[in-house]
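Tutorial sheet, problem 5. The two components below are modelled jointly, 212 residues in total.
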Amino acid sequence: MKKILFGLLLVSGLLASQLGMAAADLEINTPAISALQNSMQNRHGQLASFYTSGAIGLTKDGLIAVKDASAVPLKDRQSLNALVAAENADRNKLYKEIAAANAHPEWEAEIRSTFAQRWVQKAQSGWYYQDASGWVKR
Amino acid sequence: MEKLINFKSSLLGAALLGTMVILPACVTINIYFPAAAAEKAADKIIDDVWQLKDGQPNGSEPTVNTKEPTAPAK
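Model answer (structure tokens):
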């Protein structure tokens, strides 16, 4: 009888610890993160055509980079560089903010690499991304 | 009597083992990086930034003609 009771206790303990893990979500609803999201969403309207033309691509460190400047008229290259720099500044801040919002600043690098994979996974076909060997078309 | 002691010690052993298994599992949540949760968070943010969720029109154009014109009553 005691044994059965103990077994039940053990099973419920294991279940509870499983539930605890499943419920662990990352905090992303902070004003700082929402502001970065908005800023990036607005900028994406300008960036979308550059992804399609192959002028820019997704890097393996969760940022974007100019891949083929010749896909852009000379007069527009300066503004493209500025867009890329602004986007990367937002992305760097985003990874840092998520780590900070979850009270684990040391998670920044892992959050960045998680994002790097997910950006690529969700990219439209025809967009470019970087892997170990260089630029790859999705 | 000996049987009782054996049972007791095995119970103690099982309890010890259980604690050794469950406790680190709980601590894991707090120390190690929650990869699945991070992926979920990333997906949520990327869907928002790239407007990937269905039912959301690209850009901020207003939705028009969402209602069917009502037929005049006979």
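Marking note: Residues 28-137 of chain A form one domain. Full credit if you identified this.
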